[in-house]
Write a structure and sequence with these properties.
With 543 residues, the protein is α/β, with parallel strands linked by helices. Helices cover 38% and strands 17% of the residues. Among the domains are: 33 residues, no CATH class; 147 residues, no CATH class; 175 residues, no CATH class. The structure holds zinc ion (3 copies). One zinc ion binds next to loops. InterPro entries: F-box-like_dom_sf, F-box_dom.
Length: 543
């Protein structure tokens, strides 16, 4: 029986166009490319889905893609514009070291920008994500970003760092380079980094940031992620001055107005000045990650005051070795100190109520995440042992921590506070207006509960070393999470005890530390791994 004599029961070609299209749009680019080879009809049909969201993993492929667009060019005679296939979103992955190995020349920013502008001409509404990995901070194309325009790039993700094998070279020139003197040599990483300019130093500076923030190099940038890797040295480099202020001009930060998501991970170029600039000029920022960067507690105190009410997501990870965390804790434990000490915990309680996701890892954390002064006083009145710091009169209350007592008292306290304000309302609610207000309040509470359930709000707190105040304990934190708002998932980690408790709707479960906080686990791994994955910030702050 010859194949052509049998009519296939159903094939992609025989399906109505709309249905076939729905199928094509749901397929991955590689599947589409394979399908396109099956028949001429299918080839024609899959063209538009195939070109809508291409993912290209080299500059060469970007060139070919641009050439294809050029080949498919048609002219709109009325407007005189060239048209080609519709591209909705382009994802471009570049590894500068691989590019250089392939062509013998570094991939320079000019070429990249030119090609993106070429694609933009056909697709003025395209959005582009650029992901550059294994790049030195100051090598091409990253080095020359500020002298080019990259239109329609809405997402920029950079994996920056220095090639560990080149590190000693790059730091041996110039004065004050003793910083990396005592480093144990390690085997080179399998994937090479591009070569930094000799003498380049990763320190806070305006130039590093303006190319991302000025709005002229990346006029459409909404999401910026900087993941920096650096050598873990043993002492602060002599040239590094953490107090060095960075002065940004108005033009330097114009682009921040569009930024919605900012991730800075182990970036030695980041400091208080950059954080403050970000705070002042990024009104649309709702998703902020600051991980293992060198910022003071005074700056973080300001950040949490101003940003927490606006953000939807916050990840704040303070390095275990942070000297600022230590100083803040010391200040807090001086009895009846008159000094104002930056304390981060209370901010989360006061201003973090409406965030979908909070993650906070710090050397020291305490019950102020949950309790206000009034609640704590009531707890002590009911027999809570208090803390070793004592009360205002210096009386140290002591005894054993009673979890049942704590949860009972706090729950009772909060219910009464609610009904107190409720009965006050009721007492003088002759007016229809006030009834309406009470109803409105009830309704908004119900809406909030539904939103929390739907969006699955989460709170992750990780105690890296201990409690803010002497005598405080981690189990108390877990108990306090049990009496928090329903629907919010709490994860409380305690690195020294290697324990994690998860709490949801008053129910506590134990979890594995390495499952819940893998990033911290990695950081505590074998020293040789640590050399590669740890950031120089840590070494700086270790002094
Ligand atoms: Zn750098
Ligand atoms: Zn370095
Ligand atoms: Zn605290």
């Amino acid at each position: 029986m010859s194949q052509s004599s049998v009519k296939p029961v159903a094939s992609l070609e025989s399906l109505p166009t709309e249905i076939a299209d729905t199928i094509y749009y749901s397929l991955t680019p590689s599947t589409l490319a394979r399908l396109a080879r099956v028949s001429k009809d299918i080839y024609a049909a899959v063209q538009s889905p195939l070109y809508r969201k291409p993912v290209l993993n080299s500059f060469r492929k970007l060139q070919l893609f641009a050439r294809t667009l050029k080949g498919a060019e048609t002219w709109d005679f009325r407007s005189g514009d060239a048209e080609s296939k519709t591209v909705v979103h382009l994802t471009l992955l570049i590894e500068p070291a691989v590019e250089e190995a392939r062509t013998g020349k570094p991939l320079i920013a000019v070429l990249l920008a030119r090609l993106l502008r070429f694609i933009e001409r056909y697709n003025p509404h395209i959005t582009i994500s650029i992901i550059i990995s294994h790049s030195a901070c100051d090598s091409q194309p990253v080095r020359s970003f500020e002298s080019e325009v990259f239109p329609r790039v809405t997402t920029l993700i950079l994996d920056l760092g220095e090639d560990p094998t080149l590190q000693s070279d790059s730091h041996s020139s110039g004065s004050g380079s003793r910083a990396h003197g005592s480093i144990v040599p390690i085997r080179p990483m399998r994937r090479p980094y591009s070569r930094p300019t000799p003498g380049h130093r990763c320190v806070p500076n305006a130039k590093f940031w303006t190319r991302f923030f000025n709005g002229s190099s990346f006029p459409h940038l909404q999401r910026l992620e900087l993941h920096h890797r650096s050598w873990r040295g043993t002492s602060t480099p002599a040239y590094y001055n953490p107090a060095e202020p960075i002065l940004f001009t108005t033009e330097d930060t114009l682009g921040l107005a569009k930024i919605e998501r900012l991730v800075v991970n182990c970036v030695p170029e980041f400091n208080d000045s950059v954080l403050m600039a970000g705070l002042q000029h990024a009104p649309r920022l709702t998703d902020l990650h600051i991980e293992d960067c060198r910022v003071t507690y005074i700056a973080l105190d300001k950040l949490l005051t101003h940003a927490l009410p606006i953000l939807h997501r916050l990840v704040l990870r303070i390095p275990r070795e942070s000297p600022f965390a230590r100083t803040a804790r010391e200040g807090m434990n001086i009895r009846n100190s008159v000094e104002e000490n930056p304390h981060l915990c209370p901010h989360f309680r006061k201003n973090g109520r409406n965030l979908k996701h909070i993650e906070f890892a710090a050397p020291f954390i305490c019950r102020d995440l949950f309790l206000d002064g009034y609640e704590f006083k009531k707890l002590v009145d009911s027999g809570h042992p208090g803390s070793l710091q004592g009360d205002v009169n210096g009386n140290i209350v002591s005894g054993n921590l009673d979890i049942v007592l704590i949860t009972g008292v706090v729950r009772h306290l909060r219910q009464n506070r609610e009904t107190d304000s409720g009965t006050q309302k009721a007492a003088c609610s002759e007016s229809f207006e006030e009834d309406k207000q009470a109803l409105e309040k009830e309704r908004s509470l119900r809406t909030r509960r539904a939103t929390i359930q739907k969006q699955k709000w989460t709170r992750k707190y990780n105690v890296l070393e201990g409690m803010c105040i002497d005598g405080d304990t981690y189990p108390e934190l877990v108990a306090l999470a049990e009496v928090e708002e329903d629907g919010i998932a709490w994860t409380l980690g305690h690195a020294p005890g290697n324990t994690v408790s998860t709490v949801l709707d008053g129910m506590t479960r134990e979890a594995r530390y390495e499952d819940e906080f893998p990033e911290d686990q990695r950081r505590r791994a074998a020293p040789s791994r640590r050399v590669r994955e740890h950031d120089m910030n840590d070494s700086l702050s270790a002094v």
